Amino acid sequence: MATVRDVRTKAGEEAITMLTAYDAPTAGIVDDAGVDIILVGDSVGNVVLGHETTVPVSVDGMAHHVGAVARATEEALVVADMPFLSFGVDEAQSLENAGRMLKEEGAQAVKLESGPHTVSLTEKMVQLGIPVMAHLGLTPQHVNQYGGYPRQGTDQEAAERMLELALEHEEAGAFSLVLEHVPANLAAEITDALDIPTIGIGAGPDCDGQVLVFDDAVGISEWTPSFSEQFGNVRAEMESAVDDYVSAVESGSFPAEEHSHEESDLEELY
Ligand code: KIV
Ligand code: NA
Fold it and tell me: Tens digits of per-residue pLDDT, 36-94?
């Protein structure tokens, strides 16, 4: 089982790989491929549960998915994303929610969409033994404030504020930092300034690692952001399998002899 220390060690040597997963079979595939970190992202809300955004995702809902992923993962580090308002409102409640992901669901760390309100909370979690992955740049739980998903850190003041927050979260004990949808040169500067590894999404090539949403990376999603890449066409493969199933049942070619159990020697009932 990988640990947060393994992640920090690898960062100096090779790029860190991270993908999301939301269920056991997917986690098994990602884990077998040797991906370093599996993030059970709150992107489960829009990617899997049919919501428009991540805002409606609940702690119970996350726990359900985190458990499934953790049970199927042998090697990768499993990180549970903490959903909107499950942290940062009340400290005791935040610690209980995050602790549950480790204690009951088998995650080894949590991720918090970070800001000024998560510095002391990160420190407290780390003190208690809950490793924290920080997340700056575009934080999708703020969609109602942004009015969309705009790139972040594009002016000098915002860039300086982001660097400052990154350093504060490192100081608070975060073991890594996700940088989402920020200019590549800003991500490079933050990566240089920090000792902990940065993991980028839409943040250029100079982070210590990269993360994508699984469904985007393998080509299940109907729409993917411009900074993503489809490394496969799994949706087309699924569509073709479902089409073939429908045709086979409708034409009577499925089930065939080989799919049928032997008939029992019942008397005719009717
Ligand atoms: O929820 C998620 O999938 C994420 C990653 C894109 C970083 O937060
Ligand atoms: Na997320």
Answer: 999 999 999 999 999 999 999 999 999 999 999 999 999 999 999 999 999 999 999 99
pLDDT one-digit tens code per residue, 189-220: 999 999 999 999 999 999 999 999 999 999 99
- 4-232 homologous superfamily: Phosphoenolpyruvate-binding domains (3.20.20.60)
H helix or E strand, kind and range, residue 251: helix 234-251
First and final C-alpha spacing in the chain: 59
Q: List, as one string, the DSSP characters of 59-79.
A: HHHHHHHHHHHHHH-SSSEEE
Is the beta carbon of 215 within 6 A of some atom in ligand 1? Answer: no
ipTM, interface predicted TM-score of the complex: 0.99
170 is annotated as an active-site residue: no
Annotated domain spans of the chain = 4-232
Instruction: Please give the model's pTM, rounded to 2 decimal places.
Output: 0.96
Expressed in angstroms and rounded, the spacing between residue 266 Cα and the centre of ligand 1 is 56
Residue nearest to atom 5 of ligand 1 (CA): 41
Instruction: Report whether residue 31 contacts ligand 1, using a CB cutoff of 6 Å.
Output: no
Cβ–ligand 1 contact at 178 (below 6 Å):
yes
Sign of CA dihedral 105, 109, 110, 111: negative
CA of 260 to the centre of ligand 1 (A): 44
